[in-house]
Amino acid sequence: MNNVQRALFLGLSVTGLITTATANNGWTWEQIHDDYNQGGKGLALAARPLWHIGAECGHWPCFPGWATQGANDDIVPPAKLYYYPNLDSSRGDDPNGCPWPGAINKDTSPFPTYFTVTKCCDGDTQFPEFRVTYSVFFKKDGYISTGHDYDWEDATIIWRRDPSDWKFYRDELLMERHGPRIPIDYRDVRSTINEDGDWTADGVQDQDHPKLYFGSAKHAVFHIKNTQFCDIGSDANGLPEDEFNTAYRSDNWSHMSWPDNLISAGKDTALGQKMMAYGPFSGLSNPGKLQTQVCGLTASDRVCKPRLTDPI
Questions:
Q1: How far apart are CA 239 and CA 85, in angstroms?
Q2: E strands along the chain, which residues?
Q3: Average of per-residue pLDDT across 240-259
């Protein structure tokens, strides 16, 4: 499917759809190695997503938030499930409901992104991979008929080394989609931004931060917006191609985490271990658990290989 066909399917403007930008700033071995040994937060900041979530045909979502609370990092209680199409009726005034998202299309309440940084292909001294996983927590998933307590969603950016200059670049994106992770070449991500650029621009590719969308009800991760379908069947659509997946995702609220709410939660951190040990999280992809699996997640056949100089 070419860009024009994609645009027509999603009801987008065909003109000015895609722009390739000169960005995707690379890191030297010394930079990435030193940062990794200090916890990897610099690398996590360098490519953290600009998350988007929408109100499905006017129905407010369960907004993401903190997984723990208080001085002891106690796990928060789950939010109440409702019948379709009601995702959350508390509007933030119920402590056991979902967090207040902020005024629609205006202000967004900050929420945390939990991250892990994992070095894969460790035996390959020339072409190791660094996988940075960004996880977001929701107090529930879906509706009474289709949902469950608690929900973790994630996206992983894979950094690979370019043999032309020996720097590491964002090379691939993995998006959680109801269990499987959907791989896409980073240069094919529909919209990206630079931190000091225009965050509202769409169709600019291969910059530092991907623009990603949560499905409104089931929270799967997408790189293409779609507001054409509002139904309970579409909410659970698991098709891997963004162009054909009908789950509603929009941008009524947007947030990029800053250093104070970009939280290290790997398997070796106290926070990560607490969440891994919490029973109701055991069946979910909490950050620490996911880190133990991330090197084996579905990806392209470029695993443990150099970054391609030319896009696929």
A1: 22
A2: 19-20, 50-53, 68-69, 74-75, 113-120, 129-141, 148-161, 168-176, 181-185, 192-193, 204-205, 209-214, 221-222, 253-255, 262-264
A3: 92
Token readout for 267 is 């398997």
Helix, strand, or coil (residue 229): coil
For tokens 């959680």, the residue is: 176
Shortest CA distance to 260 belongs to which of 111, 96, 38? 111
pTM for the whole structure: 0.90
Query: Nearest to residue 139, comparing CAs of 174, 180, 92?
Result: 92
Contacts of 159 (CB under 8 A, 6+ apart): 27, 32, 43, 47, 129, 130, 131, 132, 168, 169, 170, 171
Lookup result for tokens 């969308």:
213
Q: Provide the CA 285 distance to its chain's centre, in angstroms.
A: 13
- 30, exposed or middle or buried, with CB in 10 Å at 0-12, 13-18, 19+? exposed
Q: Residue 158: its pLDDT value, please?
A: 96
Within a 10 A sphere around the Cβ of 124, how many other Cβ atoms?
12
Percent of the chain at pLDDT above 70?
89
Name the helix (H) or strand (E) containing 202: none
The helix/strand/coil state of 157 is strand
